[in-house]
Amino acid sequence: MTITTKTLANSVEMPLIGYGTFRMKDHDVAYKGVSQALELGYRHLDTAAIYANEEAVGRAIKDANIAREELFITTKVWNSDQGYDQTLKAFETSLQKLGIDYVDLYLIHWPKSTMKDTYRALERLYEEKLIRVPGVSNFHRHHLDELFTSCNVSPMVNQIEVHPSLSQMDLRAYCTQHDIAVTSWAPLGTGIVFTHPIIKRLAAKYEKTPAQIILRWQLEVGNIAIPKSVTKERLEENLKVFDFALTANEVAEIATLNTCHRTGTNPDDGYINPNF
User: Fold this and answer.
1) What are φ and ψ of residue 257, in 5° steps?
2) Is residue 51 flagged as an active site residue?
3) For 226-270, what is each residue's pLDDT tens digit?
4) 275 found inside a domain
5) Is 88:121 a contact under the CB 8 Å cutoff?
6) Residue 117: which domain range?
7) Mean local confidence (pLDDT), 11-16
8) Which residues of 29-53 are buried (b: 16+ CB within 10 A; e: fewer)?
9) Residue 272: inside a domain, yes or no?
10) Is position 185 within any domain?
């Protein structure tokens, strides 16, 4: 199956649907999930140092025997590793655990007071071609504005919580203005809108599941999405969103479901949920 890509600011192609590995601490679960995803045609994998599964992800990549250039691998520097020297060291650890020579996308996981020094390390890694794309995660507009005052290369991706209950329209527009692609984590939210009449009607119209309607909405508004599942049927289902399109009116209808409801922490509150 061919997955459509998004062209980033530096012309790197990033697959629009990826496989998220959040809360897959169990190495057997992570290995099985990534292996199944790769077998089904996923080529974009998202992990992070704090997920404690980079080794399992790396093992699955190795065993899949897929050409490295066909894969798009994202990982992230955790809060306690932020700072220039610490970030360079953390990156090397992630690289070793993943068993690869470079990372496609490296993100600052959460904004902190040390983020400028952290991003300076990302710029060095980018210059040395150890990462193909520098980016950030969970950054509000004011975090980006602060970073812009010192960076030489602007972040090219901002991975944030986006779903119909939290559309983040203003932040997404600001990212678009600055040529920053948006990746949506928790792209399906908590599933609370699955039973909403709008979603049910569209699912019936297109003969798709509510999850597929929401993932298609993510693509229609310009987002990259990284849904997570350990069920093969769901993994397969999440890829089957490239054979239909929502109308502009339907996209607008789904946007009315926004209630500013977060499933995770507001970045302005600092990261306070250690429950991985």
Assistant:
1) -80, -5
2) yes
3) 999 999 999 999 999 999 999 999 999 999 999 999 999 999 987
4) no
5) yes
6) 5-189+221-229
7) 98
8) ebbbbbbbbbeeebbbbbbbbbbbb
9) no
10) yes
Q: Which CATH number goes with the domain that contains 100?
A: 3.20.20.100
pLDDT score of 193 more than 80 = yes
- Decide if pLDDT at 77 tops 70: yes
> What total of structural domains would you count in the chain?
1
pLDDT band with cut points at 50, 70 and 90 for residue 191: confident
- Residue 243 within any structural domain of the chain: no
Contacts of 222 (CB under 8 A, 6+ apart): 6, 172, 176, 182
| CA–CA separation, 105 and 18 (whole Å) | 12
- Among residues 19, 42, 51, 119, the one annotated as catalytic is 51
Distance CA 105, CA 151 (A): 17
- 104 alpha-carbon distance from chain centroid: 12
| pLDDT > 70 fraction of the chain, expressed in percent and rounded | 97
- Largest Cα–Cα distance of the chain, in whole Å? 54
